[in-house]
Amino acid sequence: MTAPLPTPSAHRLIPGRDTPDPASFPLARLLAAAARIRAEAAPATSFDAAAHAVVDAIWTSLREEALAPVPLAVSLATTRIAPSTERPDAATRQLTLAASRRDGDGTAHPGDALAAAPGLASLVEALGLDESAVTAGHPLEPAGSRIAAFPVLAPAPESGPVHGDTVGIGGMLADGELFLIVLAVDGTIASGAIARLKVVAASAHSALLRHDHSGAGRPVPGRFSDAHDEHLTVMESMLDEQATGFRRAIADLRAEADVVDTLQSVGTRLTAQLDLDMLVQDATDAATRATGAQFGAFFYNLIDAYGESYTLYTLSGAPREAFERFPMPRNTEVFAPTFNGEDIVRCGDITADPRYGRNAPYYGMPAGHLPVRSYLAVPVVSPTSGEVLGGFFFGHPTPDRFTARHEDLAAGIAGYTAISLDNARLYQRQRMLATELQRSMLPDIREVHGFEVATRYLPAPTGADVGGDWLDVIDLPGDRTAFVIGDVMGRGVGAAAVMGQVRTAIRAYAVMDLPPAQLMRQVDDLLRSMPGSEFVTCVYAVHHPVRGTITYANAGHLPPIVVTPDGRVETRPERLGMPLRIGDSFDDCEFPFPAGSTLVLYTDGLVERRDRSARDGIGHLAGAIGVAARAERGHVAEACDAVIETVTGGRFDDDIAFLFARDLGDVRRSEEIALGTESTTAALARRFVTTILTTWGAADLIDRAILIATELVTNAVRHTGAPSRLTLQQSGARVTIAVADQDHRTPHRMDPALDDERHRGMFLVDTYAQRWGTRPTPTGKIVWAELTTAGAPVKDTA
Amino acid sequence: MDEAALLSVDVTRSSAPRAVIAAVTGELDFGTTSRLVSALGDAPAEGCDVILDLAGLTFCDSTALGTLVALHKRVAEHGGRLFLTAVGRPVLDAITVTSLDRLLRIRPSVQAVNRELAA
User: CA nearest B35 in A: which residue?
Assistant: First the structure.
């Protein structure tokens, strides 16, 4: 089945037989013709002259206006009694041509009288005369009207150059004889227009009555006034009929306009609606209103995350409780045409329908169901896939409430609903895809050592396109943390894909422990090797807890904001740099970041708006961030929401990525020892570790820490034979053991066989440490391992 | 730092059952395992059982674990068995996480080993 068209069927706007056809002999034109006939025939001095005047007037007035159909021939004939040639005592009636006009020379044509002959029978019939009395030449007495207009069967082609319909008008003259005017036109004459020609007949009649047809003297006055009465009656009834017709036509057109209006406004509203829940409710309300139903329901099908179809419904005109206790309607004979998307069902009384009441357990409507007699159900079918999206059901407790017009309206709304549902589902799918893609690419930042971190990603409220904003927090060895924010220019899946790759690349380079500027150069190189032309702005900032600094590189991104522990808010706009893929030189910058400071990174969506410059936005942000930086521990997330609300006022045009990191001000300290290559080196390292961890209140780590330190130092001594340096570092509960040596080869964890006599060193480190890793140094490498103490770290008293 | 202060090995021999008992005290690591090996001398190659009493051992690194594996193999090669007794917590942890408890014979005490050998 195809989707119902959202517009009313075109044929309804074309007037049918019962409506006047203004294009075929409009009344105004015929009235003008009638007036002209009387005016032109008035000065005539004989019946023949009057007949000529009547024919001329009809001819001229109907040809004058360039309206179809155009008269091709007009002839006027009258009957006369003549003695019968066969029986002298009898008489017969003959038809004689009195006047004629036709295309061409405009003179009478012998064929014209013949052409009029078929019209006589029609005239006789129309006036209700006895046909035998006509033929026999008996006096005639009309049964009703003295004038008539009627269609005439088209004459044979040889009788004249006639191409279209022929119509006859005529009546009875003062002497009891008949006059017949035959009008041939070049097109078709609507049946309604033929009736209107009575106006011309009446006018011709009264014009001819003024003159003596019999040749016996003056016209009969009584007949003359009768004719006038009749003329007036015809005019009045004609006008009345026309007025009624026009009123009906206006009512019809208005109703059609209402349908179009309703559909137009419902359609506009529905097709603009992308929210599925609002859409289905709106459609149900509109359709229920338009059909005049007591209540309406829309059942629609959705697909869940597992690809299973399920059905939901909306109601209009009835509370949800009215249906809650009933099961979902099944695909019974009554419902099948709707649920299968086959056809509209409109029923004056559904309870009398043969399909009704045939299924267990209810055999009809369940007890307590709202009463339904009038029933209308319209399927909603996707115009793109042909899939049945749902169905509208309308009910009314009284029978015969739904008309063809209601059906048209419901079908139209169903059509719009189908398009809108398609759109909404497509939009939802795309939006879901985009959000899903983005979510999968954004990091899950749970806990960052030594920091209280809050991140926010707010997609732009409009548009399904995913943005290219991202943020990241990367835990680096040596208790350092990298904070990253960036923005790939452009939107859509392309930008998101670039974002994902850049983010991953930065993570990879970060693990290699590249300094910020060098990292930017690497990412820039990578971007230039990728297809596409999106440029990228980015800040990569590394926090060094022991030094109390942040080292960063900024590739064209908005400046980081720092709040110092004493509450000073500073933006760091120095050396903004060029965006990646545009600039080629990136610099390392450093600023102090004492314990307790706060770092804020953000994308332009937060500070830039159509009605506000980024500069003003940053000012707003700097003002709001001081409050958040003072938020109580454990409440930074709410504080960040408040900052975003304050800065945007709830309005933003672009995606917002926002990163807030407050240093917890944990104890941070570090101790180190230089080690030689003696056989007692590892033992010395163990003494050092034991002493320091005891001082730091992390004695619970000693057993594992001395084994790790031994393994790392042993590797350094064994593989380089050169002095190394052991560093112990504490940041809050985290303790890092690092050994720097002069060798570039990096150790790996091995899984030795049970009776293997070697290769258990890094296996033990890997087992005992929370994490471990290596990073290159200019002269060799550092191998580090982290442990977390269960005991509360004692405060640094140094 | 004095190497000798890090590790001492006290070796005694018992005739019945025929075994070499070495009481190991201190820390076994890269720098000290050679001292254990030389203290045992040829005992592992004599076909007798070797009992390492580790009650006094406070530390054992991966190098030392490797030495214990080598010792185990050498003793077995000559028809003897290696026993570890009275293994302290940190050392036992290192042995367990490297799965060496599946290879090495670990007993609660020297007496327990003697009873086992006499049986």
Answer: A679
pLDDT digits (tens, 9 = 90+) for A724-765: 999 999 888 889 999 999 988 888 888 888 888 888 999 999
Residue type, A201: A
C-alpha distances in Å from residue A375, one per residue of A169, A293, A321, A401 = 50, 9, 21, 8
Average pLDDT over residues A179-188: 84
For residue A685, give the chain B residue with the closest CA. Answer: B1
Of A682, A684, A760, the CB nearest to B66: A760
Q: From the CA of A627, how many Å to the nearest CA of chain B?
A: 50
Chain A environment of B62 (Cβ under 8 Å): 711, 714, 758-761, 763-764
Comparing CB atoms, the residue among B3, B65, B72 nearest residue A679 is B3
Q: In whole angstroms, how large is the CA radius of gyration of chain B?
A: 13
Count of C-beta atoms within a 10 Å radius of residue A718: 12
Give contacts of B69 with chain A, Cβ < 8 Å.
Answer: 755-757
Among residues A250, A254, A282, the alpha carbon closest in space to that of A267 is found at A282
| Angle of helix A276-291 versus helix A404-441 axis, rounded to 10 | 180
User: Which residue in A678, A707, A767 is closest to B61 by CB distance?
Assistant: A707
Q: Per-residue pLDDT tens for A445-457?
A: 767 878 999 988 8
User: Looking at the DSSP assignment, which residues form a beta bridge with residue A77?
Assistant: A97, A180
CB contact under 8 A, B66 and A681: no
- The per-residue pLDDT for range B35-94, each reduced to its tens digit, is 999 999 999 999 899 999 999 999 999 999 999 999 999 999 999 999 999 999 999 999
Residue in B3, B65, B73 nearest the CB of A680: B3
pLDDT tens per residue, range A401-411:
999 889 988 99
ipTM surpasses 0.85: yes
Label residues A310-328 b or e (16+ Cβ within 10 Å = b): eeebbbbbbeeeebeeeee
Phi–psi pair at A640, nearest 5 degrees: -70, -40
Tokens 């790996």 correspond to: A748
User: Cα-flanking dihedrals φ and ψ of residue B66, to 5°?
Assistant: -60, -40
Q: Give the closest-approach CA distance of A743 to chain B in angstroms.
A: 19
Contact list in A for residue B32 (CB cut-off 8 A) is 679, 683
Closest listed residue to residue A126, CA positions, set A67, A158, A66, A169: A169
Coil, strand or helix at B29: coil
B1, B2, B69 ranked by CB distance to A755: nearest: B69
Distance CA B62, CA A104 (A): 127
Within 13 A of A468's CA, how many CA atoms are on the CB side? 21
Number of A to B CB contacts under 8 A, please give it: 80
Range with the poorest average pLDDT among A323-332, A742-751, B3-12: A323-332
Task: Name which of A708, A755, A704, A771 is nearest B99 in CA terms.
Answer: A755
